[in-house]
From TrEMBL:
Protein residues bound to Mg(2+): 222, 246, 250
PROSITE patterns found in the cross-reference section: IDH_IMDH
Naturally occurring in which organism (per UniProt): Acidithiobacillus caldus (strain SM-1)
Cofactor binding: number and manner: Binds 1 Mg(2+) or Mn(2+) ion per subunit.
Protein name in UniProt: 3-isopropylmalate dehydrogenase
Amino acid sequence: MTTVVFFPGDGIGPEICAAARRVLETVQEQAELPLTVVEGLVGGAALDAHDDPLPPESLELARRADAVLLGAVGGPKWDGLPPAKRPEQGLLRLRKELELFANLRPAQIFPQLRAASPLRPELIEGVDILVVRELTGDIYFGEPRGAEVVQGKRRAWNTMVYDEDEIRRIAEVAFRAARDRRRRLCSVDKANVLETTRLWREVVTEVGRDYPDVELQHLYVDNAAMQLVRAPAQFDVILTGNMFGDILSDEASQLTGSIGMLASASLGQGRGMYEPIHGSAPDIAGQDRANPLATILSVAMMLRHSLDQAPLAERIEAAVLRVLDQGLRTADIAAAGEPVVGTQAMGEAVAAALREQATS
Ligand code: IPM
Ligand code: MN
């Protein structure tokens, strides 16, 4: 029996996860997939219940599962807490404990949503990018880190650090992904200033020798950020570290019109974790306004990468395209004046499209 853990988390997390769960249960019924879904607490929800953003029982649930689906964590309620007691720590510790070093963040244009992109249609034509972000190293986890007050003056510091093994293993993931796509890899660094990323460039270049069929290019992160809005169609796979990847994947998401559409997979040796790339959107939490499609598409990634059910992933992806074709729009992807549906209705519509597929 396959087990999947849902960690709905905070803000809009519970609503988008409920919609995603509906969709998973629908394909599960259709395919007679033996699968158990259990729910656990992380983030602020776990802080409230157990005073720990990743309680031991949640970590244990994740370790025993075949895959993890996470909604979103964080919110103003917990903003004033000390660093170790922030909701985000739950997510960061999950990534670290499960050794999920490879974060895949695809950004492709949904033709139905062209108008939602802030870029002109001719600029986004053909955009199909995969950001491969290193997820368990870099300045996010580097030591030493800290904050202190010295003679009445506050200072704080973090450490950007990578060793060559960490760079090599993420580079391998990116080159292999490029091989299955358009065979172009752009590695992003700041090698003109930072030693860490000079090493990054060296190691990526070395790994690239084993992939002569993949065209390797290096860009500085400032230039990459500019190119992403100037001519985004030039990119295929973008490989970068944890911090630059965090920033560039948000930027890439906007090309597609809404961060509410983009799924992600975090992979390591064992089970993977799947999440929408957006946050917990506390401003619209509990109002049935959030777009569940990124979470639903994360379920599709989960079926493909962790559960060996690529055909079911494709069915979900087709159902999402179908509801977009039908004109269903949550507020984030609606054009001015277009009617809007809520989170639940959007989830139901995807489930209905799946049932319709099965009978046609
Ligand atoms: C993301 C998020 C997280 C990150 C936060 C919530 C810790 O922004 O997944 O991109 O910075 O990695
Ligand atoms: Mn982010």
